Amino acid sequence: MSTGMAGGLEAIFAAGTLAGATDRELLERFAGKRDGEAERAFAALVARHGPMVHSVCRALLRNGHDAEEAFQATFLVLATKAGSLRTPDLLGPWLHGVAHRTARRLREKDSRRRRHEAEASMSAIQEDRSDRPAMGRDEIEALHEELDRLPEPYRVALILCDLQGLTHEEAGRRLNRATGTISARVSRAREKLRGRLARRGLALSAGAIASATSMSNASAMPPALALSTIDLAMHVTCDLAAGTVSESVLALSREISRRMLMTKMTLASAAILALGASAAGVSALARPTPPPTAAPKAEAPTPAQPKGTPGDEPPSEADLIVRGGAALKRIASAIHAYAEAHDMAFPPQAIDGADGKPLLSWRVAILPYLGAEGKALHAQFKLDEPWDGPHNKPLLEMMPAIFAPPGAGPSEKGLTCYQVLIGEEALFTRGKAVRFSDVYDGTVNTFMVVEAKSLVPWTKPEDLPYTRGKTPGLGGRFKAGFLAVTADGAIHLIRGTIPQQMMDALITRSSGEVVDITKAGEGVQIP
Q1: 3-state secondary structure (DSSP) of residue 192
Q2: To bridge 419 with a disulfide, which of 12, 244, 394, 452 should be the other Cys (CB 3.0-4.6 Å)?
Q3: Is residue 390 situated within a structural domain?
Q4: Sign of CA pseudo-dihedral 17, 20, 24, 25
Q5: Coil, helix or strand for 232?
């Protein structure tokens, strides 16, 4: 046995003496790097959180060796960031997120590596299903992905209780919340997961979700893996004697760390942009009202963009992309909320009259799911009157800001570029209620709302007609491409030069084409 392995074994045995220490205390001891205390503290962290991390990696990866690499890379990321975690008392949920990202990255590499190999051969030779739940790997991946997207209070409660096995009382003490509050959050988190998975075509009951997440604890963490992980972490962070360091694990951990940093920087930039926009709005509101003798309002500069102010510059394309992406994110959330209230069906492309004639847009149909103001505006419409009827037409001027094109000028008031694609194969089909379960190609690969080149009155039931082989008029506001939100709610900036075959695959909902949307553009991170 190597010196490093012996030290790791002793550390595991000593970890029990630190069982009462909090995650914060263990991280502080490890970050202090005082002789053997750092190793014992890290061993205690591996012993405490290793089973959950290992089960996530094993559930998502078909290859046992890949799962072990993902496990080691996850804890190596922890070792390098131990002194800088924002909420060290919630280490378990943080590790879940890192493990999911790491396993997903390895899975992407594995898929490319094995693209031309027979699935049956891979299963027979490399896959060990002895500790797998009955759910398929794609379902498990979707579950962990949507779990990561839950609002933090629900995500944390579900991970602590279901994945890490804490009782509701123990989780309540950890979070300084009443036991009843934790119970309610866990129940609500399961329901939210059920709804999110249903939107991806996965029909699971809340009970099935509870069973699936709790199964994660069934995967036993191999002691040798724990020891080698401790050994690796101490070698890399404390420069102690150790065995051979896996270059692939080091490279993977560094890649995940870089991706996490880039995500953090993107969110920070978006927050700064939002803060700047808020400050500009406050400044505009604080300006004194012009006296009656002032110039006519039509000739005055708008508050958001005062004319002639030295140093003022129009927003950059990157700024407008973030703003447009944020608007699409809210639109997608409203569509999802509509679906949850309508048997998981997307809103109709048009609100029809008694004679079947289209009267109003889907944008009017989702107003009740845009908050109190949206509900109030929806109540003002006559749903049996056309969009340009005597009652409804004046409501054009009350268009919610999220429908406005990014950087819209005064001449574009009441007009929107956010439209859906209509066709027999598209997500929206005239006269047919399309449900999430009808999206056989996957919600992550199917356009839901796109940025159109032409503008239409926001209440008018007019969108982009689609026919296979013909690219509809998309984009035009950005040199980099056009904005789109897929049916899972993810925002993308799609290049305008993608091949027609790929465009068709992204528009159609159930044609069976295999497409990797990351090759069509890039994701847009929205806070």
Answers
A1: helix
A2: 452
A3: yes
A4: negative
A5: helix
Burial code of 75-110, b = ≥16 C-beta within 10 A, e = fewer? bbbbbebbeebeebebbbbbbbbbbbbbbbbbbeeb
Instruction: Give the percent of the chain with pLDDT over 90.
Output: 32
CA angle in degrees (0–180, nearest 5) for 205-514-492: 80
- Kindly report whether the global pTM for this prediction surpasses the value 0.70: no
Q: Judge if 258 and 329 occupy the same domain.
A: no
- Domain, as residue range, for 443: 318-523
Is there a single domain that holds both residue 190 and residue 322?
no
CA 88, chain centre distance (Å): 22
- Specify if 488 maps to a domain: yes
Same domain, 324 and 249: no
Cβ atoms of 421 and 349 within 8 Å: the answer is: no
- One domain for residues 92 and 156: yes
Contact 56, 103 (CB under 8 A): yes
DSSP letter (8 states) at residue 233: H
Rg of the chain over Cα atoms, rounded to whole angstroms, equals: 26
CA distance 257 to 80: 9
262 and 324, same domain (yes or no) = no
Q: What's the gap between Cα 485 and its chain centre?
A: 12
pLDDT band, very low/low/confident/very high, at 10 (cuts 50, 70, 90): very low
Cα–Cα distance, 194 to 53 (Å, whole number):
23
Cα-based angle 149, 333, 453 (whole degrees, multiple of 5): 115
Gap between the Cα atoms of 146 and 409, Å rounded: 37
Class of residue 16 by CB neighbours under 10 A (exposed 0-12, middle 13-18, buried 19+): exposed
Model pLDDT, residue 113: 56
Q: Please state the rounded mean pLDDT for residues 100-127.
A: 61
Measured between alpha carbons, how far is residue 24 from residues 21, 36, 44, 109, 262 in Å? 8, 18, 12, 34, 25
- At which of 224, 251, 266 does a domain end? 266
Among 266, 286, 304, identify where a domain stops.
266
Question: Which string of b and e fits 150-169 if b means at least 16 CB within 10 Å?
Answer: beeebbbbbbbbbbbebebe
296 by Cβ neighbours in 10 Å (0-12 / 13-18 / 19+) ranks as exposed
Same domain for 241 and 358, yes or no, is no
Residue 213, domain member (yes or no): yes
Least confident span in 63-72, 297-306, 454-463, 476-485: 297-306
Examine the domain organization and report whether 239 and 125 are in the same domain.
yes
The count of structural domains within the chain is: 2
CA distance 70 to 60: 10
The pair of three-digit structure tokens given for residue 25, joined into one six-digit string: 């205390």
Q: Please, what sign has the CA dihedral across residues 506, 510, 511, 513?
A: positive
In a domain, 304, yes or no: no
d(CA 125, CA 136): 18
**Taking residues 191-217, what's their average pLDDT?**
71
Q: With 0-12 CB in 10 A as exposed, 13-18 as middle and 19+ as buried, what is 134?
A: exposed
